[in-house]
Amino acid sequence: MPELPEVETIKNYLQQHILNISITSILIRQPNLRWRIPDNVKSDLFQQKIIQIQRRGKYLLFISHKGVLIVHLGMSGKLLILPKQHKPNIHEHFALTFANDKSLVFIDPRRFGAVLWADSSWQEHPLLRDLGPEPLNDEFTATYLFQLVQNRNIAAKQFIMDSHIVVGVGNIYANESLFLAKIHPERKVKTLSFDDCEKLVASIKTILQMAVAKGGTTIRDYVNSENKGGNFQHYLKVYGRGGKPCVMCNNLLIESRLGQRTTVYCSTCQV
DNA sequence: AGTGCGGCCTGTCCGC
DNA sequence: TGCGGACAGGCCGCAC
After folding, report:
1. Nucleotides of strand B under 7 angstroms from a protein beta carbon
2. Strand B proximal to A114 Cβ, under 7 A
């Protein structure tokens, strides 16, 4: 569900609400998420405070003096701030309650998400250490991308959705970025010129920045921690518009499947 | 090493 | 209205 802009929006909200407040209880209701929630989360976080929240790709990192809680929302995960006494949700798998009687509640119907624990050197965690650069950082450049595309016989869309190449680009923003860059999603990446890489990098940055500014995209059920949707869905040019006219050339957009994911593009504008 | 896909889950929608 | 199948903002881990 959530891609980089959605996770960033959640992080920005949580930073204003749960920092530096003692944790009074930890609830593990369903430990079997993508990976099992480690038992020691309970003892390690008890009476600790979250002193900092960071985002790495689509992972949220809740940093305490004892270690780091790593949270990934998968496809259907939500993190909500609710009163300590709230209406129970059958998919509430994990919750932290704070001294101000607010709870941080992890809800995830499909359980593709994860709640994990690392010591303070979370950068070395197996799930995080091999991740590619943050797309909005200066290290994500055309020079970097052009170097990686050499001899790679993979479709452009699958390439930019690979978190070892660049983090945070999911299905919606991959489709949108390729449209903006005028690159066909099935184009083999080894055929990209340096100029193509420049356009692609610039497009990914533009799309993600705009989406962050609009609080993310709500297609179906994404909500931030205030239980509100984002607004970027009003700015999508291809995703969800298969069969409709291209906003640039009026030809009908093609909807196909690539790597088991719905892919939408304009066969005239994107080459 | 790179590439392609199965699988993890539940909910929803669509066609028969 | 019931049922099966496809699909959904992700991504690891395995075959080849």
Report:
1. 2-11
2. no
